[in-house]
Amino acid sequence: MFETLGSLTASPWIYALVAVSIVLDVFLPVLPSGVLVITAAAAAAAAGAAGPVPVPVPEQVPDILLLLVIATSASVLGDMAAFRLGRRGGARLDRAIARSRRLTRAHERLGTALARGGGALVVIARFAPAGRSVVSLGAGKTQRKVAEFLPWSVLAGMAWAGYSVALGYFGTQWLGTQWLGTALSVVALFAAGALAAFLVRRPPPAAATAA
Fold first, then answer.
1. Model's pTM, two decimal places?
2. Angle at Cα 89 formed by Cα 72 and Cα 127, nearest 5°?
3. Per-residue pLDDT tens for 49-71?
4. Residue 10 DSSP class
């Protein structure tokens, strides 16, 4: 899989592929947007990787700053699309939320969390599997104001994109091998996702005390 993705990084279409994948994975969390970002960042670092044997790299590799900007912007666009859908979803979305334990929990927890400055949940959930979907839809469904949600979405997008790009780039720089740097970076991304999922599912301190 890494070989196939690696071949895509030599094409200027990698930016469009990254952007579309990130925007859509708020609705289809199975899309490998994080893997794409890491692979593209690893390709950008491969030319300067300090390995014992020089590794041939494509003439065209992704620009690391452009990749970071595109990943952040696409993350915010996807969040806002889900947020708008949550606000205007109507009865059909209500039924979907009622059938989903995670969406129901998000609906309950986000009712006042963003207004009270609890928007850090948006940042943490950005790393959790499907957490971005749950939080963005939940924030819209609870009729939060755009001004309450958007700054946290931007911060979440910057944190996630920065983390993913840094993993791929510095992992390859330090290890000196693109495929190994990419593989270990993907593992680190999944580990961060598992930790974020645990933090999102953990009940708030007040609930824990009451229990």
1. 0.79
2. 30
3. 444 444 444 456 788 999 999 99
4. T
87-96, 150-159, 164-173, 186-195: least confidently modelled range = 87-96
Q: Which H/E stretch holds residue 31?
A: none
What amino acid occupies position 65? L
Q: Which residues fall within 8 angstroms of residue 100, CB to CB, at 6 or more apart?
A: none
Phi, psi at 112, each rounded to 5°: -125, -5
Taking alpha carbons only, the member of 143, 148, 160, 166 closest to residue 25 is 160
**Amino acid code (one letter) for 25:** D
User: Position of tokens 């070989």?
Assistant: 3
* DSSP per-residue string spanning 121-175: HHHHHTTSTTHHHHHHHHHHHTT--HHHHHHHHHHHHHHHHHHHHHHHHHHHHHH
Q: Are 79 and 153 in contact (CB under 8 A)?
A: yes
User: Position 80: which residue type?
Assistant: M
Identify residue 192 by its one-letter amino acid code.
Answer: A
Instruction: Say how many residues make up the chain.
Output: 211
